[in-house]
Specification:
The chain is about 25% helix and about 30% strand. The chain contains eight helices and 20 strands. The chain has helices at about 15-20, 60-65, 65-75, 105, 130-140, 185-190, 245-265, 310-325; strands at about 5-10, 30-35, 50, 80-85, 85-90, 100, 120, 125, 145-150, 155-160, 160-170, 170-175, 175-180, 200-210, 220, 225-230, 235-240, 270-285, 290, 300-305. The strands form four sheets. Strands 6-7-5-15-16-17-14-18 form an eight-stranded mixed beta sheet, covered by helices on one side. Strands 9-2-1-13-20-19 form a six-stranded mixed beta sheet, with helices on one face. A three-stranded antiparallel beta sheet has the order 3-8-4. The longest helix is centred in the C-terminal third of the chain and has 18 residues, at about 245-265. It is globular. The two termini are about 30 Å apart.
Length: about 350
């Protein structure tokens, strides 16, 4: 066994899940990040888990595990707080078949203009992505993992087809395996050793509103408005990026979201904008996760995906098992980096 251990670069929710599932299983684990855990794109996530995908999607076997894997984590980590509120969508938001309900007003009594019929997925859920990331990191550290914050990964140590560590602003860290969970930063680290990953930053806007508590009970999703509400009244609303380049433009977007929300829910007239930010999601060219060892390169494992929140629990467990045992997980077949070459 190699005593250099495993280095996970990136402490978003994917990296945190990997560190948790890797730690305590016979190899030293080090988790590094340029900031605090969950402070990158994870923080700007709407954090809706369980949204279905078409059965013929290459990632469907992985995505089908999402909900049960979070149920597993709830058992392992009693402090984990998942809000199993279910979701409602209509007006063509969700094109995949699903259970339909005519009892929309009972599920969302404050909705001013409920549709006659909506897709109701009672199994869907959401959570605070930063709190869950912090919990996973704390649990990994309890299992013996080491956390280094304020440490930027700058390059991979690579020679003769083998990665033997990672270079950082705090010095070089030798590793048996380097696991890249650095989102869009994974592209540059791989390109430095001649591996090309067709992944682009995909910006999305997350608006936070201050509203009266109890206005939204489920996750509500239409093409013009997606919202969910926390116990303290905070409303989260993701929006497609439309070219905002400064805070004034972002605030205008947030105010439009606030106005839509106020026009959609009774009791929301006094809603205020609390914050707005852009999350730069890593989006593979085919929209599918990139998980596994790039062919011909030893000592390197890559995990890059959109819907990282949904897939974090399942990916953490399956990828950790692959890294530790070398036995491939069938649920990850077809999501390998080499599919692009």
């Amino acid at each position: 066994m190699d005593d250099r251990g495993i280095v996970v670069a990136g402490a978003g929710i994917i990296g945190a899940s990997l560190a948790y599932h890797l730690a305590g299983r016979g190899r030293p684990v080090t988790l590094i990040d340029a900031g605090l855990p969950g402070s990158g794109v994870t923080r700007a996530s709407f954090a809706w888990i369980g949204r279905s995908v078409a059965g013929d999607s290459p990632s469907a076997p992985l995505r089908s595990l999402a909900l049960e894997e979070y149920r597993r984590l709830e058992t392992e980590l009693p402090e984990l707080s998942v809000r199993w509120s279910g979701s409602l969508s209509w007006d063509g938001f969700d094109e995949t078949p699903g259970p339909r309900t005519e009892d929309v007003a009972a599920l969302e009594p404050h909705l001013l203009d409920p549709p006659a019929v909506a897709v109701h997925r009672p199994e869907d859920a959401a959570f605070d992505p930063v709190a869950v990331t912090d919990l996973l990191v704390a649990a990994a550290r309890d299992r013996g993992a080491r956390l280094l914050t304020g440490v930027l990964a700058t390059a991979l140590d690579h020679q003769a087809g083998t990665v033997s560590g990672i270079r950082t602003t705090a010095g070089d860290i030798p590793a048996e395996t380097v696991v890249l969970a650095a989102g869009t930063g994974t592209v540059a680290l791989c390109s430095g050793i001649g591996i090309t990953l067709p992944i682009e930053p995909s910006p999305a806007v997350l608006v936070r509103l201050r509203a009266a508590p109890g206005l939204v009970r489920t996750i509500v999703a239409t093409p013009s408005l997606e919202v969910r509400q926390l116990d303290d009244g905070t409303v989260l609303a993701p929006m497609a990026y439309s070219g905002e380049t400064d805070q004034a433009a972002l605030l205008e977007t947030a105010e439009r979201v606030r106005d839509r929300f106020a026009a959609s829910f009774a009791g929301a007239a006094g809603t205020k904008v609390a914050s707005v930010e852009i999350g730069w999601r890593p989006m593979p060219a085919d929209g599918e996760p990139v998980i596994g060892r790039p062919g011909g390169t030893r000592g390197l494992y890559v995990t890059v995906m959109h819907s990282a929140i949904t897939l974090a629990a399942a990916t953490g467990r399956l990828a950790a098992t692959e890294i530790l045992t070398g036995s491939p997980a069938p649920e990850l077949a077809g999501r390998r980096p080499d599919r692009f070459h």
